[in-house]
Write the structure tokens for this entry.
Amino acid sequence: MKVEVVESTLVVPTEETPRLGLWLSNLDLAVPKTHTPLVYYYPAPPPPAPGGTDGEDFFSPDRIRAALAKALVLFYPLAGRLGVDEGGRLQIDCNGEGALFVVARADCTGEDLFGSYEPSPEIRRMFVPFAPSGEPPCLMAMFQVTFLKCGGVVLGTGIHHVTMDGVGAFHFIQTWTGLARGLAVSDACPSPPFHDRTLLRPRSPPHADFDHPVYSPAYLNGLPRPFVTRVYSISAKLLADLKSRCAPGASTYGAVTAHLWRCMCVARALAPGSDTRLRVPANIRHRLRPPLPRHFFGNAIVRDLVTVKVGDVLAQPLGFVADTIRKAVEHVDDAYVRSVIDYLELESEKGSQAARGQLMPESDLWVVSWLGMPMYDADFGWGAPNFVAPGQMFGSGTAYVTQRADRDDGIAVLFALEPQYLKCFEDVFYGE
């Protein structure tokens, strides 16, 4: 499969935007210093009726580019560059230099790519622009519109993780697509992004009231291992079955993650007496006191670590595992979040950096939930995408739980696993 770049431009905001160094919180600095690659697939539109017209060109780059320039006025950090302040701390230099916008053509079809989709370095290379991401100065946001042989389009997005989490990313996409559909700014973005991250400053003096091993490099000491990623469908029937084996009111995330954790332990043949650890991310916007603004634009996610004996994951009822996960998520309150921020501050004062990598040992699992996020609310004017997913995974044992374009189709789990464990995992995942 080949991709040919047709044009590549920097898109700057349509209006003057604040010129400043945007302070990054410890939570921003604790995420991987990479661009997060996502792909959105838009099938070709149906042919026009006889005698009719198909209106404006499908996925007109000019229309999408103009809307991007408008969206960057509100989301101006995405038009900046990664920088450092006078003390050497990373910040976003909000300088209005622009986001990268690429138009390309590919010699493959949507069926070739998404008939049985697998995130991979190749998918990322083909459909998401690449730029060095680790050190300043680097681009904050890159986008690529690729026209396929079948008439469909892939939108690839690469937004630097220090700028925002998933909530912020989808807020931006909603705004951009709304503007492309011709909405007024106030309708495309009724709640503008809140950019001031100093609400997440550490206390003075900082003091960690809890242990936070999930941020310690000691727990990310696995070696790089070859892995493959598969997309597993969980039908409404399977989901109802999993939830029926948990306590009433169990969350979809809890039930699915408990099942995934159990299947991983079986597939990897972990020793029953050994520990297995689950990394649980939690959105803190509503957990702080007072809460963060709902449209806080930054990283408002903290991690907790659930450690259980493999034997308990395997032998206890599924509801026991789901309840253990629920308790970990509920444990994340204002005191816990402030403790995380202060812990990261104390570590940075010692010259240590939070573990950003995802090189987990084989005993561990990291499950991110995009359930409830408006990931399919991305209609540029030619219909919503029929598939949205990461372009690449960054380590074995990582998973995303996402909804489908049609909610009646259940949900999807994208899971990265060593190839030698794949068959056993799939047998257990669908065979229980």
